[in-house]
Amino acid sequence: MTAPKKYIITGGPGAGKTSVLLALEKAGYPCSPEVSRRLIREEVANGSQCLPWADLSCFAGKTLDRMITQYNQTAGHARITFFDRGIPDIIAYLKAAALPVPDRFYTALQQHPYQPTVFILPPWKQIYINDAERWQTWEEAVALHTSIRETYRALGFTLIEVPPASVENRMESILENLPEFKKQL
């Protein structure tokens, strides 16, 4: 049996990734939720300062550890697993904040490879909202999207932009761009 293919769905904060992943999951595809949102809730509940707006380096390290665990837990999944963000996203966030990226992030990426095709959702102002875990302004969200796009490209990934549309149309756009899906047509 071949290892499941691990596809990343990424983009700046508030671009609609979670909604698309929930639709994919409802359609029967294994999906791994965004690690950072849960981690933020836990750190806030514990009164920790290891938060992206207080100590991004600390938060990035904890996020990386969780992403590695999440990645390893998908070993027994079906042929495809979708991830709400991947290790390159952490690298992009550190770069956007002009913080050093420790070598362990690049090593972790080499040891936990994703598919070379990554689906990126562009900023979409009409759906962007702040919440307890999404603290960035619209301008910061756009800047993070740019950093994410540049980081993935620099790391050798091929980006497929999933344009603003209904959740169903975005999901179909992703599935239509999978080599596995194309073989079934």
UniProtKB/TrEMBL annotation:
Residues 6-170 form the NadR/Ttd14 AAA domain. Signal peptide: none annotated. This is NadR/Ttd14 AAA domain-containing protein. It comes from Niastella vici.
